[in-house]
Specification:
The structure is a homotetramer of 278-residue chains.
Chain A: E1 2-12, H1 17-27, E2 31-40, E3 45-55, H2 58-69, E4 74-79, E5 83-89, H3 94-104, E6 110-117, H4 123-128, E7 133-135, H5 143-155, E8 161-164, H6 173-176, E9 183-187, H7 199-206, E10 210-217, E11 227-234, H8 241-264, E12 268-271, E13 274-277
Parallel strand pairs in A: 5-6, 5-8, 6-7, 8-9
Antiparallel strand pairs in A: 1-3, 1-4, 2-3, 9-10, 10-11, 12-13
Helix pairs in contact in A: 1-2, 3-8, 7-8
Chain lengths: 278, 278, 278, 278
Amino acid sequence: MNSSYIIKVDCPDEKGLVYKVSEVLYKNGVNIITNREFVDLENRRFFFRAEVNGEVQVEEIKNELQEKLGNDANIYMSKREKKNIVILCTKEAHALGDILIKHYSGELNANILAVVSNYEILKPLVEKFDIPYHFISHEGLSRVSHEEQILKVLKSYEVDYIVLAKYMRILTPEFVKNYTNHIINIHHSFLPAFIGANPYKQAYNRGVKIIGATAHIVNDNLDEGPIISQDIIRVDHTYSWKDMQCAGRNIEKSVLSNALTLAFDDKIFINGNKTIIF
Amino acid sequence: MNSSYIIKVDCPDEKGLVYKVSEVLYKNGVNIITNREFVDLENRRFFFRAEVNGEVQVEEIKNELQEKLGNDANIYMSKREKKNIVILCTKEAHALGDILIKHYSGELNANILAVVSNYEILKPLVEKFDIPYHFISHEGLSRVSHEEQILKVLKSYEVDYIVLAKYMRILTPEFVKNYTNHIINIHHSFLPAFIGANPYKQAYNRGVKIIGATAHIVNDNLDEGPIISQDIIRVDHTYSWKDMQCAGRNIEKSVLSNALTLAFDDKIFINGNKTIIF
Amino acid sequence: MNSSYIIKVDCPDEKGLVYKVSEVLYKNGVNIITNREFVDLENRRFFFRAEVNGEVQVEEIKNELQEKLGNDANIYMSKREKKNIVILCTKEAHALGDILIKHYSGELNANILAVVSNYEILKPLVEKFDIPYHFISHEGLSRVSHEEQILKVLKSYEVDYIVLAKYMRILTPEFVKNYTNHIINIHHSFLPAFIGANPYKQAYNRGVKIIGATAHIVNDNLDEGPIISQDIIRVDHTYSWKDMQCAGRNIEKSVLSNALTLAFDDKIFINGNKTIIF
Amino acid sequence: MNSSYIIKVDCPDEKGLVYKVSEVLYKNGVNIITNREFVDLENRRFFFRAEVNGEVQVEEIKNELQEKLGNDANIYMSKREKKNIVILCTKEAHALGDILIKHYSGELNANILAVVSNYEILKPLVEKFDIPYHFISHEGLSRVSHEEQILKVLKSYEVDYIVLAKYMRILTPEFVKNYTNHIINIHHSFLPAFIGANPYKQAYNRGVKIIGATAHIVNDNLDEGPIISQDIIRVDHTYSWKDMQCAGRNIEKSVLSNALTLAFDDKIFINGNKTIIF
């Protein structure tokens, strides 16, 4: 059975790692189509990603690699296939809508299992596409109780990634640790500029000539997770902050879309508070 | 009645035109919020656009301006309101879908009256949004007959703009003259590079490092109408032409979206084969 | 005598200002080539810039405008000609060198009267171009004494703009008030991200995917003056902070160059802590 | 002796090439810092580049690799050091000046051995930097005779790359074959748009909203060599073609600068009419 797989390895750096990894692959009949390797010299860590094909014994290869590279190595090997995702959103349609259209036309490398929101407003849009919509209001609930209700829904799905498509609530570390490094957020500013509330108003008040958007992995510190992708557009003095918000939506959705493509193609490594993207 | 209007004037250049135009506006109680003026020195033509408010007598002002500026002057004055559009498309969902989502969430400064296509494939998508979908197959029809059928549908609507959202057929000059300067197309290349069929394949074969998209007014010459908006993204040797096509869709839709915003806000002048955009 | 002039007006907004200004110009035989107008609705202030030609009586026109628009109006009218500048720098050659080359080949709309630096290192470069180089070491001097020495040199020239081409010292408000709104700085980050020391190291540590540069008017608050121009380049995990610094130099110089073009063409208005750029 | 080297390999694709190459490196005590690999599946060719260090026996490693990979393999291995270049130019100072400044401040990974020009105009600029300037007028000479005179000068230097910094004459295939794949040109348009004379005038006449520049390897067909780097800037209706030319110079020099960095760091492979850039 000749299939396509992704292999990702990261481990403490030492001499000969490319040789060791490629030897295991070669001797198991695996053909490398493309690979990239990077050593973080500051932290002495080795990162390797390959797209391969062949008649592949996944478990055997993983075991051999683990044995050769030691217990500090992370070994990931997976067939190239669609990821399963759940989307969280609040009130804005643009980022969610962009993902729905891509999903509909087969351009998204993922299955949308469900959408969860603390408002009902986007329900009609989501249900047009026959995707389950879970409305879980935060009203009258503590943050913890609200998150517990969301988690209960999420846990009913087998999820590869949680996508925050303009989900406007802060997630607690307790929530995040259920999906460590597997929650992707789109932030409506060029981080680290304009952390916090209403970045477009902040940008307007500062009189910037460029605004941006940032897709990042969510970790314990709000707006401070590893950055996956960023992009910008030019603005000028004729833009009110509402105009900036409106213009910004176009890059919010394209930056998120770009980050999702990278994530769903297994192209992202987490390296401390940064990403390595091959 | 205090409302918002757009005034656009273009006429042969002469001394004192800003004065003459602003005098008419001032004496009719109109307040200019913002204006831009440009003289094409090569062709000696004056272009003026203003956003105004006040208790406005549209017909009186237009008549006074016409009288002052002469018969060669084009005078346009309109309340700021949503334009009425019909979208033509073929098989691809991305540009159409982007407009549908914007329309749905109230971000599009236009009403979509209908979608017309030579294929049925996008019908379920369009009908999710309760917009009429006219399927008019070109099979077995001459180009002229096919266009006649489309025109019959279009004429049943009162249309400000026809939007070609990846409509993959060439329009005859006879068709175009029904909507002179009011048909907007998105071309999937950075014009004038890669005119003609499959620009992404052409771009791949040439080994370019940047691909682009171009929104333009449709005139009699394919791919040669006045350009409204262009944008680009970077590609590299790892992109197949299919990858370029896929990446290109993101800018196709954002460039078209940008061009539509400019058109629906009456910010575009046609100046020979070029646009002036205020 | 038929010449080219720039007219800039800003004043409290009221009805009919375009009419009033253009009437004065028209009745004085001035022809508007291009103009832009903008009303800051938040602060009720009117901004107008025109490029004109004709047989122009500068003082008469300025007086008439001042009379019509009142004492709160700023009226600027100047022949289009090269500005006179002095450049301050420290140790890095790239931004300074870029200006020197442009000056040498006649592309800079300014005369460089002199270069002032707190180091001697760039003296040989500047003197190649027969431009006076004033070395004023800060060593052993208080900030105030150092600035007094610099001011003494600057005051010996008739200066339109002071250009900080990577001058790595903070200027006191006392110094700045000698050239209010006429000192232009290039900051090596995408402000307001990474204010303060070594922004490239900060950017590296944060793991951003885009770095930028910002040209701004210097006011009393470090890194917080009105922004004129910004631009960005993409970076990735393979960049050390030294690599970012090196790549960043290309945009530092192009952003500064762009800002200088805007300033020397009288295209910038200061509006509180922001710029309006026509 | 522990030094830094670059290794580049390209050869017909087959299974296990990463393994084979990395085995040779490992067994010769070479440590891979970073590597990239790419297989052109269309043409079945393998490309590999690594930055390595260690006590390296260059000739032994090259021989072993050649033996293992066969005669169709290109093996390149070189110490990381400055390249030697000669610059050809005509009349414009911006691209040349940018390289001179970078060279002066130690930012260019190359030694400029000489500048050759068919005009005298840039001689004073070049000689400021104590670099030999060879003025070889084309007047009264056939293209072939002119090129012979240039070649005579070039052959007196040991050159890694010829850089055409706005050298405005077409080179014959006979000339080019002396430096196959080692002549880098900056073209003042976003190729393949606006091939031929005065691309800025062409761009102006077409009314484009974006102009660009392209750095490419020179081959036998004018403007059709493998593209290394491209970039763009936005323009609008207010730009005359002279304005476009002026604005374009900023990206001409930055695109050329970027391409030179890639070339001097041995990051470019030629793959038919394209480049692979690691």
